[in-house]
Write a structure and sequence with these properties.
alpha/beta, binds the ligand O=C(O)c1cccc(C(=O)CC[C@H]2O[C@@H](n3cnc4c(=O)[nH]cnc43)[C@H](O)[C@@H]2O)c1, menaquinone biosynthesis, 7 helices, methylthioadenosine nucleosidase activity, Nucleoside_phosphorylase_sf, 5-stranded mixed β-barrel, about 220 residues
Length: about 220
């Protein structure tokens, strides 16, 4: 009988899942699922997977945008926290997060022990690696004004994607440690889809997943 997987990896789309699976080389400790694009889809699908089977760790993995001056295209970002950056209210004096409004929380800390351990191992690769807050947004940022507003809202914001907070919320509610890793495919700012380096980012995500296999023993 095959031993059940211990680590759940959630991607948004098939291309990301393929990159992760290729790097993992059928390592039976990992189960990789496509959770869908956006925090709601991944939260539902992560929660379903965690209800069906026991896992000791959940990882949100994919490509993402890097904030200018924080994470360049081709680098990796490991999240210290996942911030639901547009969950709240706009007011005449600025943005109010869910925490400010008293309706809950908009930030989930990742597992600091695992993140530190992984960062040390990733720093031994040829890739540039950063750790810092990764924002979860519902709308991909398309102007430098929004990029500035978001980085002002969250100190140290390093990357932006669309799923981390949803995966993290499901992991937290099931009491399972969690982190997010993003391979940077584009700059957060004025939209230019033709400039996205998706293949390079997926290759780098693969390098990171090979390291994951070695460190998560
Ligand atoms: O076009 C492709 O071949 C392709 C292959 C794999 C993935 C994609 C995606 O577009 C994935 C969507 C996914 O990407 C994240 N993402 C990437 N950059 C950003 C960004 O600047 N802001 C927000 N999200 C970003 C996001 O998590 C999406 O789910 C395409």
């Amino acid at each position: 009988m095959q031993t059940p997987a211990e680590i759940l990896i959630v991607t948004a789309v098939d291309g990301e899942k393929e990159a992760v699976l290729n790097a993992l080389e059928n390592d039976s400790r990992f189960n990789v699922i496509v959770g869908g694009v956006g925090a709601v889809a991944v939260a539902v699908n992560t929660s379903r997977a965690l209800t069906a089977d026991n896992y000791r760790l959940v990882i949100c993995a994919g490509i993402g945008g890097g904030f200018p001056g924080k994470a360049a295209v081709g680098s990796l970002v490991v999240a210290t926290e996942c911030v639901a950056a547009d969950l709240g209210a706009e007011t005449p004096t600025g943005f109010c997060s869910l925490d400010d409004l008293g309706f809950g929380f908009a930030s989930i800390k990742t597992d600091s022990g695992i993140v530190e351990h992984l960062m040390k191992a990733l720093q031994k690769t040829e890739l540039t690696v950063h750790s810092g807050p990764v924002l979860t947004v519902s709308t991909i940022t398309g102007t430098s004004g929004t990029a500035k507003a978001l980085s002002h809202r969250t100190k140290g914001a390093s990357a932006e994607a669309m799923e981390g907070f949803g995966v993290g919320f499901a992991a937290l509610s099931h009491g399972v440690p969690f982190f997010e890793i993003r391979a940077i495919s584009n700059v957060v700012g004025p939209r230019d889809r033709t400039s996205w380096k998706v293949k390079e980012a997926l290759d780098n995500l693969g390098v990171a997943c090979k390291v994951l296999r070695e460190v998560l023993v």
